[in-house]
Amino acid sequence: MAASSWSRKLDYVYLAFFVIHIPVMLVVDLAGFYPTSVRPTFTLAIRDYYIDTYRDRFFIDPPLWFKGFMLLELVYHLPLSLWAIPAILRDDPLVPLQLLVFALETAVSTLTCTLEMLSWKGYSLEEQSRLCALYVPYLVLAIVMGGDMFVRLRTTLLTKSKMQ
After folding, report:
1. How far lies 3's CA from each of 10, 78, 89, 157, in Å?
2. How would you class 84 by CB atoms within 10 Å of its CB: exposed for 0-12, middle for 13-18, buried for 19 or more?
3. Which of 108, 6, 126, 153 is nearest to 54 (CA)?
4. What is the pLDDT of residue 128?
5. Helix axes 125-163, 41-54, angle to 10 degrees
6. What Gene Ontology cellular component terms go with this record (predicted)?
7. Over the stretch 102-130, which tens digit does the pLDDT of each residue have?
8. 154-159 own/partner pairs: CB under 8 Å, 24+ apart
9. Contact yes or no for 149/105 (Cβ under 8 A)
10. Following DSSP, what letter does each residue of 24-48 receive, concatenated?
């Protein structure tokens, strides 16, 4: 069944997200995984700028569970993101299934980070607002993507069951 024009418009939003998400992961989020001998120096400068600008404790002194989220980003987000770009462009039938799983994991991990960040003491409302401006859109996108992918899968499954 061909995708509706509305779902294809959302696909272009998801496509833009993944195109942006890959360099952000490689330059900021996953820079700590690079061996020192091959770590590009500009990643340190960007990471230092991020820390100086946002005072994001997850990048200053990350708790163990956050390090687990970063590992998940390395072994799941990065490969999925690399797969998703061409898959969205070719309207691969596995996109709804793959992006539903991605959206659910992303929503749970981002909500966890957002709630933890809001509990940090010693941050002004302005500092928390700046951090929320980074985390909340990511959370909203994950929720929208999850709902969209759920509806697509539900529609496909119900249509298939009616044909039998």
Report:
1. 11, 26, 12, 14
2. buried
3. 126
4. 95
5. 110
6. endoplasmic reticulum membrane
7. 999 999 999 999 999 999 999 999 999 99
8. 155/1, 156/1, 156/96, 159/1
9. no
10. HIIIIITGGGS-TTT--HHHHHHHH
pLDDT of res. 162: 80
- Mean of the per-residue pLDDT values of the chain: 93
| 6 has pLDDT over 70 | no
Q: Which amino acid is at 113?
A: C
Q: Is the pLDDT assigned to residue 2 strictly greater than 70? A: no
Phi, psi (rounded to 5 degrees) for 4: -70, 160
Residue 1 has pLDDT above 60, yes or no: no
With the C-alpha atoms ordered 142, 146, 149, 155, is the resulting torsion angle positive or negative? negative
User: Apex CA 145: angle with CA 82 and CA 104, to 5°?
Assistant: 85
Compute the chain's Rg from CA coordinates: 18
Residue whose tokens read 């590992």: 71
7, two tokens: 């779902």
- Please choose, from the candidates 145, 146, 110, the residue with its C-alpha nearest in 3D space to the C-alpha of residue 131: 110
Q: pLDDT digits over 60-93, tens only?
A: 999 999 999 999 999 999 999 999 999 999 999 9
